[in-house]
Amino acid sequence: MNLQPSDLQYAVDVAMGRQPGSLLFKNARLVNVFTLEIQHTHILLAGRLVAAVGPEYASAQAMEVVDLEGRWVAPGLIDGHVHLESSLVSPVEYARGVVPRGVTGVVTDPHEIGNVAGVAGIEWLMEASEGLPLEVWVTVPSSVPSTPLETSGAVLGLAEIERLLAHPRVVGVAELMSFPAILAAEATELSKVLLAERFRKSPEGHAPTLMGPALQGYLASGIASDHESTTLEEGRAKLEAGCFLMVREGSTTPQPGGPGPPAAPGARRPHRPGDRRPPALRPAQGGRGGLPGAQGHRAGGRPGLRHPRR
Question: Which among 28, 48, 52, 32 is positioned nearest to 40, based on CA atoms?
Answer without folding.
Answer: 28
